[in-house]
Amino acid sequence: MAVLFAVVILAGGLGGCGISMPGDPDGTLERVSGGTLRVGVTDNGKWASIGDGQEPRGIEPGLVRSFASSISATPEWVAGSEQELTKALKEGDLDLVIGGFAADTPWATHAGTTRPYTESKDAYGKTVKHVFLVPLGENGFLLALDRFLLEQDVQA
């Protein structure tokens, strides 16, 4: 009982100090809201495709455009390989990476992932749960993106 009381007092005290959880140590959500959302795109068929000098097409660029609109942001697209884009995400040069990533992506050691927003079947009939990659630790941004994706009805 004393521990519960201490937790309630601590939570109330932090709230009174203007601290909100979850937070973004690098301020991603605050920076991109009303600004520019830097999005890495790796080519992956119907999920995301980008040609020379063209706007990206596919399921995920459409979702990103809608999310960006919901936070009054403008997407800025950067094409590249998975390796290039995850490195740029880790270095803070990108805010989001898309390209049909599966929830069990090996890149999850270098980036955070959203909750799966849809499922598909691969060529072997295995269920694939799809995610976006985000900067590690930017939990406020991740929460806003997850909430947005949860409201979408994505048919793969």
Characterization of the model:
Strands 1, 2, 3, 4, 5 and 6 form a six-stranded mixed β-sheet that branches. A hairpin with a 5-residue loop joins strand 5 and strand 6. 34% of the residues are buried. This protein has one domain: D-Maltodextrin-Binding Protein, domain 2, CATH 3.40.190. The N terminus is likely disordered. It is an alpha/beta fold and 156 residues long. The chain is built from five helices and six strands. The termini are far apart. The longest helix is centred in the N-terminal third of the chain and has 15 residues.
Please supply descriptive tags for the structure shown above.
globular, alpha/beta, D-Maltodextrin-Binding Protein, domain 2, six-stranded mixed sheet, 156 residues
Give the helix/strand layout:
Layout lengths: L1 H15 L11 H5 L3 E6 L17 H12 L3 E6 L2 H9 L5 E7 L9 E2 L4 E4 L5 E8 L4 H12 L6
Parallel strand pairs: 1-2, 1-3
Antiparallel strand pairs: 3-6, 4-6, 5-6
Number of beta-strand segments: 6
CATH topology: D-Maltodextrin-Binding Protein, domain 2
Specify Rg, calculated over alpha carbons: 17 Å
Helix proportion? 25-40%
Q: What is the averaged pLDDT score?
A: 89
Main sheet record: 6 strands, mixed
Number of domains: 1
- CATH C-level category: Alpha Beta
The succession of helices and strands, N to C, reads HHEHEHEEEEH
Q: Assign the structural class, choosing from mainly alpha, mainly beta, alpha/beta, alpha+beta, or little secondary structure.
A: alpha/beta
Short description:
With 156 residues, the protein is α/β, with parallel strands linked by helices.
